Amino acid sequence: MKIVCVLGSPRARANSSIIAERFCTTAENLGAEVLTFTLNDLDFQVCQACMACKTKLDRCILEDDLTEVLEAVRETDVLVVASPVYYGEVSSQLKGFIDRTYSYLVPDHVTKSKKSRLASGKTLVFVLVQGNPDEKPYADIFPRYEHFFRYHGFDESHLIRACGVRLAGEVEDRPELLALAEETARRLFSN
Predict the structure, then answer these.
(1) In the chain, helix, strand, coil percent, each to 5?
(2) Nearest in space to 84 (alpha carbons), one of 128, 31, 28, 24
(3) Is residue 57 part of a domain?
(4) How many CB atoms within 10 Å of residue 91?
(5) Residue 12 is part of which domain span?
(6) pLDDT tens-digit series, residues 107-148
(7) 35 lies in a domain?
């Protein structure tokens, strides 16, 4: 099975990246192939709302470093997206990637039963890390994006959420969070 891991944090040793890495390493040890992209290291534009993907092409018209990421997601079985929560939202890097996935939707997707150009049967693993220890704030992030990824054929989804983790690398002192990443990978890849 193939995994594409998209890291949305701008920080080195980001807590969200550490959790995603633990998930991916566990899956790799169970036989999965992993391809990781750090969005902050890529040079890409955000969606230009040009609608070329709905009128002229079956993909995003923009040619930049995100082109390879979008193509890799087309072929993957599992997509791991990881982000800190900034101002009540995913990082701007991850939001830019998510907006570009609009190109996966077929023209007039609102009225179509098959809304995406991607094959169905994919799995989404969403890693969210927030400094606020209270789980109530920002609980709306995952359901909102899970909804859109379902359009793209991600029929199964899993959330790994870490609350009360602020300083870079701090998640390494939270073994229960790293264990959750490992357990999630084992559930998906131990068949």
Answers:
(1) 40, 25, 40
(2) 128
(3) yes
(4) 23
(5) 2-30+41-189
(6) 988 778 888 999 999 999 999 999 999 999 999 999 999 999
(7) no
CATH number of the domain within which 137 lies: 3.40.50.360
Q: CA 11 from chain center: how many Å?
A: 17
Task: Read off φ and ψ for residue 73, nearest 5 degrees.
Answer: -65, -35
User: Using one digit for the tens of pLDDT, what is the confidence trace for 101-113?
Assistant: 999 998 988 778 8
Split at pLDDT 50, 70, 90, the class of 191 is low
With both helix axes pointing from N to C terminus, report the angle between 66-75 and 92-100 in degrees, rounded to the nearest 10: 60
CB half-sphere exposure, 178, CA atoms < 13 A: 14
CA-CA distances (angstroms) from residue 20 to 88, 112, 115, 150, 184? 20, 34, 28, 20, 11
Q: Total domain count for the chain?
A: 1
Residue 36 lies in a domain: no
Between helices 15-29 and 175-189, what is the axis angle to 10°?
40
Outline where DSSP puts E strands in the chain.
2-7, 33-38, 78-86, 89-90, 122-130, 154-163
Helices (H), 1-151: 15-29, 52-55, 66-75, 92-100, 141-151
Position 88 pLDDT exceeds 80? yes
The pLDDT of residue 36 is above 90:
yes
